[in-house]
Amino acid sequence: MHELNHRVNNEVAAAISVAFLAATRSGNDKLSAMDRRAGFDARDGEHFNSHFNVSSESRVQQKVGKIPPRTRVLSAAADLFLRQGIAGVSVEAIAKAAATAKPTLYRHFASKDELVAEYLRESAKRLDACWVEIGPLGSASAPVQLGTWLTEMSDGLVNGWACHLANAAAELKEKSHPAQRVIKAYKALQRKRLTRLCRTAGLRNPSILAHALLLLFDGACITAPSVAGRIDISFRFFLGGKAMIAAHAKAPSARRQVQHP
Question: How many CB atoms lie within 10 A of CB 3?
């Protein structure tokens, strides 16, 4: 039984590592996290994906004639909220960064609160895309799929796109804020999906593991702005998540492990 447990742990860890490498293949539009982190030197040439495309103010100005005002506002808001926090960003600052006027902004969003809620809905869509990438659940592929989730979230930490809901949940205190419904609904869905994936992978206590992984991720999101380098936090999250998953590989029951004199 001990040998079986050891083999299962190794298979889960290997599957996650394979998924990490497969999901971080290099491309023209990808951020090379490996080359900027010494701890990644064994995997030189591998890259994190960067999917949430938010433009800087200068880029918005250059493309102002091609991008619809609503899209520009959401893009500018996402960039500013990530860098300065929701409370620290005014409507005036968003309108300026989006190269538009406040009346135009208010034609698309009744208030800043509604803009925040819509920004989080768009962020949730990006997270949904991760689950499309993971694909239908199957017991044979579930360990690799779990590794894909871990890698996608690690990428989201580097680029910030996966942290929007976690950061908003930590910052927004008003229960009546329209964004709270978005946050609550998506967090429940994320737990449900991850629990199902952990269960399909044959891991022990799948609900507890899913909660622990999401807590680890939320903590990494909140910590990232206050430390030097998102890449380091991302790498630590990846290693911590990998260790959690390996630790939940099925083992002999406690009763069988007890040795009587």
Answer: 7
What residue ranges define each of the domains in the chain, with the CATH number in brackets? Answer: 2-50+120-257 (1.10.357.10), 52-109 (1.10.10.60)
Query: Three-state SS for 222?
Result: helix
3-class SS of residue 189: helix
> What residue type is assigned to position 165 of the chain?
L
For the chain, the distance separating the N- and C-terminal CA atoms, rounded to the nearest angstrom, is 20
Paired tokens of 22? 């497969």
- Rounded CA-CA distance 220/158 in Å is 10
One-letter amino acid of 215:
L
d(CA 89, CA 48): 28
**What are the Cα distances from residue 115, in Å, to 51, 128, 193, 222?**
21, 20, 27, 21
pLDDT, tens digit, 9 for 90 and up, residues 80-96: 998 899 999 999 999 99
What is the reported pLDDT for 92? 96
Question: What is the percentage of the chain residues whose pLDDT exceeds 90?
Answer: 55
Query: Exposed (0-12), middle (13-18) or buried (19+): which is 128, by Cβ within 10 Å?
Result: middle
Quote the CA–CA distance of 179 and 246 in Å, as a whole number.
Answer: 35
Burial of residue 137 (number of CB atoms within 10 Å: 0-12, 13-18, 19+): middle
Rounded mean pLDDT, 40-63: 38
Q: What angle do CA 13, 165, 232 make, to 5 degrees?
A: 45
* Length of the chain counted residue by residue: 261
Note whether 207 and 195 are within 8 A (CB): yes
Residues 6 or more apart whose CB falls under 8 angstroms from that of 107 comprise: none
**Which of 8-12, 65-69, 207-211, 218-222 has the least mean pLDDT?**
8-12
